[in-house]
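User: We ran a pulldown and think these components assemble together. Before we commit to crystallization trials, I'd like a predicted model of the whole complex to look at. Sequences follow.
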Amino acid sequence: MVAVEFDLDPEQEQFRAVVREFAEGEIAPHAEAWDRDHTFPVDTVLAMGRLGLFGLVFPAEYGGAGADFATYCVALEEIARVDSSMAITLEAGVSLGAAPFFYSGTEAQKQEYLVPMVAGEVLGAFGLTEAEAGSDAGNTRTRAELDASAGEWVIDGQKTFITNSGTPITRCVTITARTGPGEISNLVVDSGTLGWTVMPPYRKMGWHASDTHELVFDACRVPEDHLLGERGAGFKTFLRILDDGRIAIAALAVGLAQACLEQSIDYARTRQAFGGPIGRYQSVAFKCADMAVAVENARNLVYKAAWLRDRGRPIRRAAAMAKLYATEIAVSATREAVQIHGGYGFIDETPVSRYYRDAKILEIGEGTSEIQRLVLARDLGLPVE
Ligand SMILES: Cc1cc2nc3c(=O)[nH]c(=O)nc-3n(C[C@H](O)[C@H](O)[C@H](O)COP(=O)(O)OP(=O)(O)OC[C@H]3O[C@@H](n4cnc5c(N)ncnc54)[C@H](O)[C@@H]3O)c2cc1C
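Assistant: Here's a predicted model for the assembly, 385 residues in total across the polymer chains.
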């Protein structure tokens, strides 16, 4: 007999209900205004912290819940079901901000940075991307030179599109920098460090309530012990972080697509045209049916990837599949949901309008769709470039 289990355990289901209640009560009623006004809602982020969302996957010794990765995916799904901006704030806070400290930090660094991040009292950011190093992240130009006499690293360079890097509760950014020929390392720069400038927020197509900035480092000095992980191990660390992050982004995409499905069904049932609900037209009803299949498939890929990760199995392929598929069906789901809502779908008071703008970045951030296909094609043994 083959043992296949598709149910979450009762504790996870209970947890889903708690997060849903929070998301519907504390986030959904404000999401449109935050989006319109480009507001980063600090109090709500702190409330997500008090709910324990930033500490789910970390062990109790650092204040976390010691939950599995699947539980974290449940949280991301539920938050993204009402607001992608808050979901990416959580995802970046955990997978990009806190995880590098958990994976690579010394005990002292864990106490100083990880513990308050786990409590959701502060946020960390991860600065990998540069103007000329996105998909090609190995092309990092930012340099850090050790001034041995002062016991400090001197950082010069720039980082592009860094999430959570300029909020009132941002504690630090972990950056990748060249520390020698062929050597990339991770360094922690505390907020407010002289020589680090957080540029004004980008004007973005979506994710208006998420915080994104260009960062400039000009002879920025940090203490020698702000090296995170071993010198030269920066590339390896961020690949590991991105594998986890891809599953998390895929979970976020499932939540967004789920919201499109639910709102499309509601609208198809209630909107009247030509003497009856539009859901009686196959062109509308079949869009909903196709969306339901896509959401189901994407969710299965996400939880399979999380399941593999929770068992310490290799996840690169499963994470790439989940990220590629879930983000692409999320973009399609938002397009179809807007279509089903007709003109109202184009008006910003209708949530699907915001979902449409929020979706596109999912096919780009933490590895574009093309990069996921590259990972998968290589995994198939193809000599693809
Ligand atoms: C809102 C937002 C938030 C972000 N947050 C963060 C963050 O917190 N930290 C961080 O470090 N980065 C962050 N990013 C950056 C993001 O991860 C990059 O934008 C992404 O990895 C793509 O890099 P790029 O923009 O330089 O595009 P490029 O790499 O220049 O890609 C341009 C196009 O070329 C294609 N392409 C490139 N190389 C190949 C190849 N080998 N084969 C096939 N096609 C290829 C790409 O798929 C894409 O279609 C964020 C970006 C945005 C917009």
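DSSP finds ten helices and ten strands in the chain. That may be worth checking against your pulldown data before setting up trials.

User: Thanks, that helps.
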